[in-house]
TrEMBL record:
One of its GO terms (cellular component) is oxoglutarate dehydrogenase complex. Residues 83-102, 192-210, 256-273 have a biased composition (Low complexity). Forms a 24-polypeptide structural core with octahedral symmetry. Part of the 2-oxoglutarate dehydrogenase (OGDH) complex composed of E1 (2-oxoglutarate dehydrogenase), E2 (dihydrolipoamide succinyltransferase) and E3 (dihydrolipoamide dehydrogenase); the complex contains multiple copies of the three enzymatic components (E1, E2 and E3). Its EC number is 2.3.1.61. SUPFAM superfamilies: CoA-dependent acyltransferases, Peripheral subunit-binding domain of 2-oxo acid dehydrogenase complex, Single hybrid motif. Its cofactor is (R)-lipoate. This is Dihydrolipoyllysine-residue succinyltransferase component of 2-oxoglutarate dehydrogenase complex. GO terms for biological process: L-lysine catabolic process to acetyl-CoA via saccharopine; tricarboxylic acid cycle. It comes from Marivita hallyeonensis. InterPro entries: 2-oxoacid_dehydrogenase, 2-oxoacid_DH_actylTfrase, Biotin_lipoyl, CAT-like_dom_sf, E3-bd_dom_sf, PSBD, Single_hybrid_motif, SucB. Belongs to the 2-oxoacid dehydrogenase family. One of its GO terms (molecular function) is dihydrolipoyllysine-residue succinyltransferase activity. PANTHER family: DIHYDROLIPOYLLYSINE-RESIDUE SUCCINYLTRANSFERASE COMPONENT OF 2-OXOGLUTARATE DEHYDROGENASE COMPLEX, MITOCHONDRIAL (PTHR43416:SF5), DIHYDROLIPOYLLYSINE-RESIDUE SUCCINYLTRANSFERASE COMPONENT OF 2-OXOGLUTARATE DEHYDROGENASE COMPLEX, MITOCHONDRIAL-RELATED (PTHR43416).
Length: 508
């Protein structure tokens, strides 16, 4: 019996997708709902599960091909066409590169660079999580690649022993290129004892300088940005190797040392040999390059202007202090300031809809909904997860969504779909101590609100000088479609809603 695997519905107005990655090959056994492949559209990434248990008989749409909705991707059969798998795996070239102990009939399988997504042709090998001689299970993560859009994890296509690494960390690889070779089960049985009896030679290539350990490039980049040195981070990798997750933990635990961050970016012009020896050069990740390019594109495209105001946070702080314990007890999430600002912005966007609009050619597209982007700094760079339909959410729903997105951002688990479609953005530089800034637009959006540090300042209230907790607000906007009057009105409405939160309840 044959079962067809077809392209699922991709979402509103999306009619086609690109086959990004096949996780199975012809001849592989699959279970019901086991992930077969991944499709990429211009909006979301779609996983295609197996509709039935059986054997993957044929792949009709290969990686990189464009397919329409309901198009045939592959066929499954209940029979055991197991001969297809050995035929594909018996590659003399690969077997020749396996360890000598694997020559007794073991199979070898190439580890290939998956399709990286639309218009992405190459990637940088960020981190190898296994070394030559390590035993690996099928689908166990072998390495991580970085592109200018996302990080891509490469799973093991089969179980066995990693017999060869062909693309070292930091090297650039093309889609479809070869990353390494995995020896078959026979090689695994032979290689494992060899590794146990003589671990020193296997570990030697990774650490040529005795106790010196080559840390992951992504971790080096994160440490440089955070101003941390390797001795300030506890490595969880092999031989104490520092991974990017370790840097994230160190930043969370001790974010009070910005001074060292200035060291890598210092001297211009001629550099003495002594200074050069003390410098550290770390290549920008593709994600960082993309962030830089998008920010510059925003400046080159939009007519960005920033207007400022200040808000007295007395009432919001009092309201939060009064109800925070009850709020957390009932809803299971802390009551922060972000829900107040999100609500205030949604309220103001109703009155000034052009701030929630975007330019499409010669048209202005007004959004009758608010998909709120919440900028979040991570060790990998700035990301903006989107809270969809924030205008229809309660305070508790907003706080839960922000907390969940924030965790996923720090863990590097956000999908492309979760960072697309925003209509307006809030950026909170106050958590880092910023007193005032001019945020840059997140294209194609036309507005972004910058929050800042709350600081006690003397204010004149009813003719008397009083100390009040004040925050500067900054609205950067696209002056092509938002006039000064609209921008100022928006910021004043946000200010009014925060200084008297009851206005939100009364829709005033």
């Amino acid at each position: 019996m044959t079962t067809e695997v077809r392209v699922p519905t991709l979402g509103e107005s999306v009619t086609e997708a690109t086959v990004a990655t096949w996780f199975k090959k012809p001849g592989d056994s699959v279970a019901v709902d086991e992930m077969l492949c991944e499709l990429e559209t211009d909006k979301v990434t779609v996983e295609v599960p197996s509709p039935a248990a059986g054997t993957l008989a044929e792949i009709v749409a290969g990686e990189g091909e464009t397919v329409g909705v309901d198009a045939l991707l592959a066929t499954l059969s209940e029979g055991g066409e197991a001969t297809a798998a050995p035929a594909k795996a018996e590659a003399p070239k690969a077997e020749a590169s396996a360890a000598p102990a694997a020559s007794g009939g073991g199979e070898s399988v190439d580890v290939m660079v998956p399709t990286l997504g639309e218009s992405v042709t190459e990637a940088t090998v960020s981190t190898w999580f296994k070394k030559v001689g390590d035993t690996v299970a099928q689908d166990e993560m072998l390495c991580e690649l970085e592109t200018d859009k996302v990080s891509v994890e490469v799973p093991a296509p089969t179980a066995g022993v990693l017999s060869e690494i062909l693309a070292d960390e930091g090297s650039t690889v093309e889609a479809g290129g070869k990353l390494g070779v995995i020896g078959g089960s026979a090689g695994a049985a032979a290689a494992a004892p060899a590794q146990e009896t003589a671990p020193a030679p296997a570990a030697q290539p990774a650490s040529t300088g005795g106790k010196d350990v080559e840390h992951a490039p992504s971790a080096q980049k994160a440490m440089a940005e955070a101003g941390l040195s390797p001795d300030q981070v506890q490595g969880s990798g092999r031989d104490g190797r520092i991974m990017k997750e370790d840097v994230a933990k160190a930043v969370a635990a001790a974010s009070s040392a910005p001074a060292p961050a200035a060291a890598p970016a210092a001297p211009r012009g001629p550099v003495s040999a002594d200074d050069a020896a003390r410098e550290e050069r770390v290549k920008m990740t593709r994600l960082r390059q993309t962030i830089a390019r998008r920010l510059k594109d925003a400046q080159n495209t939009a007519a960005i202007l920033t207007t400022y105001n200040e808000v007295d946070m007395t009432e919001v702080m009092a309201l939060r202090s009064q109800y925070k314990d009850q709020f957390e007890k009932k809803h299971g999430v802390r009551l922060g300031f972000m829900s107040f600002f999100t609500k205030a912005c949604c309220h103001a966007l109703k009155e000034v809809p052009e701030v929630n609009a975007e330019i499409d050619g010669t048209d202005i597209v007004y959004k009758n909904f608010v998909h709120m982007g919440v900028a979040a700094g991570t060790p990998q760079g700035l990301v903006v997860p989107v809270i969809r339909d924030a205008d229809s959410m309660s305070f508790a729903e907003i706080e839960k969504a922000i907390a969940e997105k924030g965790r996923r951002a720090r863990d590097g688990k956000l999908s492309m779909a979760e960072m697309q479609g925003g209509t307006f953005t809030i950026s909170n530089g106050g958590v880092y101590g910023s007193l005032m800034s001019s945020p840059i637009l997140n294209p194609p959006q036309s507005g972004i609100l910058g929050m800042h540090k709350i600081q006690d300042r003397p204010m004149v209230i009813d003719g008397e000088i009083k100390i009040r907790p004040m925050m500067y607000l900054a609205l950067s906007y696209d002056h092509r479609i938002v006039d000064g009057k609209g921008a100022v009105t928006f910021l004043v409405r946000v200010k009014e809603a925060l200084e008297d939160p009851r206005r939100l309840l009364m829709d005033l």
